[in-house]
Specification:
Elements lengths: L7 H14 L3 H30 L10 H19 L12
Amino acid sequence: MLAIRLPQSIEKRLDKLARRTGRTKSFYIRKAILEHLENIEDLYLAEGSLDRIRSGKESAIRLKAEQHKKLAAEAREFFTSAKAGRTKRTKKTVV
């Protein structure tokens, strides 16, 4: 079991959503956590890697121009989908 404190404005929005849809606030809180937890974990892992690269404990791998363009296009597509709520994570390796 988990108890969380939310700003009153968020609590009101959840109440309204739950009433309109007939679902519980817990349903929507659980859904939000499950959909975004992996992204939050990835963010912290990336920040840790960046700190280690900046401190010289790790090094980055340089991509060729075509690899960079492909990866940038995939990232744009992912973030565009994320904003629209359509993301499904896949593990891809740039070669």
